[in-house]
Write a structure and sequence with these properties.
Layout: H1 2-41, H2 45-56, H3 64-68, H4 72-91
Helix pairs in contact: 1-4, 2-4
Length: 105
C-alpha cells in the first residue's frame, strides 16, 4: 500500500513540475507579446499607421499611398524604421521606453 501511495505521489510531483514549467513558458510568451504590443503602440504616428494598415487591416502595398497620403518610398522607409524600432525595444533589457512621446491612440 505504501508503494502505491509513493508511486501516486511521485506521479503527482512530476505532474506539478510539468505544469509549473508549462505555466512559466506561457508567461514568457505572454510577456514577449506584451513587449511587442507596447513597442508597436508607442511608435510615432506615421510608423504606427503604416504597420496598422499593412498587418492589421491587410491593405495592399499598392493602395497604401492613396490611403495614407504618404509616398511609396517613404512608406518603405517608415515601415523598416518601425520594425527596427520594435526589434530594438523588445531586445532592450530595461523596463523603460526609449522612444519619443506619442499621442494616445
Amino acid at each position: 500500500m505504501i508503494h502505491m501511495v509513493e508511486g501516486k505521489q511521485k506521479k503527482l510531483n512530476h505532474y506539478r513540475k510539468n505544469l509549473t514549467e508549462s505555466i512559466a513558458e506561457l508567461e514568457d510568451a505572454l510577456d514577449a507579446q506584451r513587449r511587442i504590443h507596447l513597442a508597436y503602440i508607442m511608435l510615432p504616428q506615421d510608423q504606427y499607421v503604416i504597420l496598422k494598415k499593412l498587418y492589421l487591416e491587410h491593405v495592399p502595398w499598392k493602395q497604401l499611398p492613396d490611403e495614407t497620403g504618404i509616398p511609396k518610398g517613404q512608406i518603405l522607409r517608415l515601415r523598416q524604421l518601425a520594425l527596427d524600432t520594435i526589434r530594438e525595444q523588445i531586445n532592450d533589457d530595461t523596463d523603460g521606453w526609449k522612444g519619443p512621446d506619442t499621442e494616445e491612440r
